[in-house]
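Retry 2 of 3 after timeout on previous attempt. Resubmitting C-alpha cells to design endpoint.
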C-alpha cells in the first residue's frame, strides 16, 4: 500500500557552508548552499549539484534520502562513486537537520545519517503502537460524531 510522504519547506535565512576533501582529488573545497527556501528533496539535489561543481563536475556524488513509501526511513546518504571523502559542516544546526550526528569523517565512500531528515514525514515509518493507537482514537471519534444529532 502506497502512503506517500509530506515534506515541509525549509527556509535557509543565511547561506550554509561545508568543507569537502576528496582523497584522490584534493581540497579543501568550500561548498555553499544559497540562502533560499527548499523542500527536502530539492535541498538534497542542490547539495549534490554543489558537491559535483566543487570537484570539477565529475558527477560522481549522490545525495539521497530513503523515501520509498513502504520502507522509507528519511535517512540521508551522501556518497561518491569512486573516491573517499570527508565533509565538515560550519553549522551544526544545518548538519543536525540533515540527520547527521557529526562531521563526516574519517574518509569513506558513503555516509548515512543517524536520524530522519527534519521536515520529512513518512506515514509508514511510524511505530506500530502509534498506528494502532491512532486507529483506535479515530474509531472512537467517528463513533462520537455518528451519535450526534444532525443539523
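Retry 2 succeeded. Sequence:
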Amino acid at each position: 500500500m502506497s502512503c506517500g510522504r509530506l515534506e515541509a519547506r525549509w527556509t535557509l535565512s543565511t547561506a550554509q557552508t561545508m568543507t569537502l576533501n576528496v582523497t584522490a582529488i584534493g581540497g579543501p573545497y568550500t561548498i555553499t548552499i544559497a540562502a533560499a527556501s527548499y523542500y527536502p528533496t530539492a535541498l538534497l539535489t542542490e547539495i549534490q549539484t554543489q558537491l559535483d561543481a566543487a570537484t570539477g563536475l565529475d558527477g560522481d556524488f549522490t545525495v539521497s534520502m530513503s523515501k520509498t513509501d513502504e520502507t522509507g526511513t528519511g535517512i540521508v546518504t551522501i556518497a561518491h562513486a569512486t573516491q573517499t571523502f570527508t565533509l565538515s559542516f560550519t553549522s551544526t544546526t544545518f548538519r543536525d537537520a540533515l540527520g547527521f550526528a557529526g562531521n563526516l569523517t574519517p574518509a569513506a565512500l558513503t555516509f548515512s545519517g543517524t536520524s530522519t531528515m527534519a521536515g520529512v514525514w513518512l506515514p509508514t515509518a511510524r511505530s506500530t503502537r502509534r498506528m494502532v493507537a491512532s486507529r483506535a482514537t479515530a474509531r472512537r471519534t467517528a463513533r462520537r460524531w455518528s451519535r450526534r444529532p444532525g443539523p
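Attempt log closed. The chain has one domain: 6-123.
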